[in-house]
């Protein structure tokens, strides 16, 4: 029983870390632009494909890649996706910055469709086996099994999140980004380079999303052009649950969602005596999301924004 | 942004010419469709269903200014109402028109049930809650196997018939859809210009000001949700009757998003715009069928470009049906 508990906890932490990496991108973009970036799930997918590309092109035989090659592929891929994110912002969202609030969101839907189809054309629509970035060792820990892949994911995700948290709270760039997300017009009046802050967000968000994609693909050993859709939706739900626009909120929301999912899968059939099976775990996630929003519309850690500050331009 | 505003830049003769051309094109296309091969008629039927869905969702998005990403749930309610009441699944075979009535009422009830809790939410949060609602409905349908057949869906639905006239062939479905789209479009257009429509517009422009001048925003929003859901459910029944098969695959989040895109690309808050948007998003992929997945890539890029180049949509709100009528009669 304890073993199962530990095992499920580690599972939830692993998947929660991946959700958190992606949720951070949603929440940061929302923070500075008040925009839901529907193409963010695609950054997750691009991360896995970019890493795969780096491995096949520069390293050749995937089976015999050393730790150095893997590290190189990981960082090469996430940085490439980061720059890609900045480029997309320039092309598809920047022209719409003074448009209605709905316009950039719908533009991001177009971007999402383009990227998924683009990868389908270039790499084929079928799922591809993905090499594991970590040695496959199993450890027995108080009756539960923990794999090195899980440990690797946890460590990588914690390091990345800690790096982001330090950058946002301690660096000059972080101050700029926080100022812009506090109030873009005021930041602009104070002479802050708003475009730089937005670019920084569109670099780091996709970068973390891509890292999440690589970790996810190496956890499950598979990637596909459509993998971003479902995980993107989950991470987005997590960001909203934690309070969109809040960085700690996105992390908290991601772990809560992961625990609800894992716990729901294990407990739903037990509690309801088999009436509701594990297939209802997404219903449970959404139900919890809706309940939280009804009680606390800004999310768990979201600031209770007044309506004027939130809606400073027409919705449609 | 009052839709009754006349734009002085357009000369009366020019607007009359445009009106005559647009109406002539619509009438010509509508009249030519029955003579096309069955495959093409099916494409037009799917176009008409999407126009119907667009007209319904536009009430919430375009008129009232609330982003609803779970509209497909009402479409599913309508489709499954028909599937359950006119198939061997429960061995019920009710007449088509009765089911349309039942579906409309069920759609309205679902719309109000969704509306009540979400009314105090705004903007993005509303979008997410409606999205979650749509997903919950789809997952439930997917898993209540004993009732809905689960992922396999329900097959062998009855052929629809109205007063003894069977409606099963694509052409017959086409006429049914054409009449429905016309009637619903007329009803919604009149509704938008009614006092309720003015209340919706006031909520869209400024909710607090709307409440300040004495509009019961709660009731007006509920009315918008209910009307929109009713139309979605009606569209669902006709969809089920024309496919004679329903499965959860037809009611994914992507469908909701497609309808939102149709409205925004075509022209938000404008019935003529919805027709244009549906034509682009439904017909273009069919026309470019030989290019396989390249057409989807093209469609994605086109979406981004259109939103940037024409943020108000292909047919802006100012060019509504009344413009056509006014142009035609030279008022």
Automatic annotation (TrEMBL), chain A:
Segments traversing the membrane: 12-33, 45-66, 72-93, 105-123, 143-168, 189-216, 222-245, 252-271, 283-302
- Look up and give the membrane topology term: Multi-pass membrane protein
Q: Which UniProt keyword terms apply here?
A: Amino-acid transport, Cell inner membrane, Cell membrane, Membrane, Plasmid, Transmembrane, Transmembrane helix, Transport
Recorded superkingdom: Bacteria
Name the predominant localization. membrane
InterPro entries registered for this protein in UniProt? ABC_transp_permease, BCAA_transport_permease
Q: Where in the cell is it found?
A: Cell membrane
CDD domains associated with the record: TM_PBP1_LivH_like (cd06582)
Regarding protein family, the annotation reads:
Belongs to the binding-protein-dependent transport system permease family. LivHM subfamily.
> What name goes with this protein?
Branched-chain amino acid ABC transporter permease
**Which lineage is the organism of this entry classified under, starting from the top rank?**
Bacteria, Pseudomonadati, Pseudomonadota, Alphaproteobacteria, Hyphomicrobiales
